[in-house]
Amino acid sequence: MLSRVAERVYWLARYLERVENTARLINVHTGLLMDLPRDVEIDWFTLVTIFDADMFYHANFDQINENNVMQFLLAEPNNPISLLNSLSAVRENARTSLDILPEETWEQVNELYLLVKNEMAAISNRRRRQQLLLTIMERCQTVWGILANHMSRNHAYHFMQTAKHLERADMTSRILEMTSLLMAENRSESLRAAEGILWTHLLRALSAQQMYTQTHSSSMNADGVLTFLIRDEAFPRSLFFSLKAIGRYIWPLPQSTTTLEHHQIIMSEIFTERLNELPAEMIHTRMDDLQAKLANLSSQISQQWFHPDRSVA
């Protein structure tokens, strides 16, 4: 397939996964803040921090409050990772890839984009916003279902699955950074008292609560949650599952040896130590390091298949 086509479907999948992940995270975080006392160290700006978007936020807003954070993460045109910008990128990549995607893909993506664009004026209304976020998640899952059930397992499909799992691993690592706050020695008494609620919502941010309770009964603690989200081999949003899947989908691509070697380095480095046994601040450092490695892997993919005439930065 042409390199420009491969690049379009790769980024379609990354942005589609990002839209769903962003919607879920905001939805769960809103519920969390409604359950927590006001004096804990978690607030609306925590969402901005998870996305490492502090600089972009302060460049566009002077005050930190719910409405500004929601505008920034959902609709802000100057925020390159806002949900509406990501969804616009999904739509454009789908529009220019009609010949290789199931035809229902464009219909679903276009309808979702128009719906979200029309509803953005109402995001300050919490009830309507929460309903919109649930609709976004459902529509994204519908698109993934169409791709899974109607698309040949060809190079385009492998690029899309590689992108999906790379984006998913990145989001899981960002949510896991929150554990440095939940486990910090100097955390407040209010935060300590709410630990059960916090670990539950952390699992929900990755749609992991039900699968976790199936294997861990009612036990909700740091060691169990971290082990599950980092090392579980069966749950599709654990770091291990997502990172292993990246290699599985890169392998059938042409001339994939060098990229697979980069992938194996990441696998060996992230799983040589038990991250759940590290001090809280070290988990944050390891997750930052993983995000940098995933960005480098994405650059390697771009150089190998999309822009072979460019060098990896």
TrEMBL record:
Residues 1-306 form the DUF403 domain. Pfam families: Alpha-E. This is DUF403 domain-containing protein.
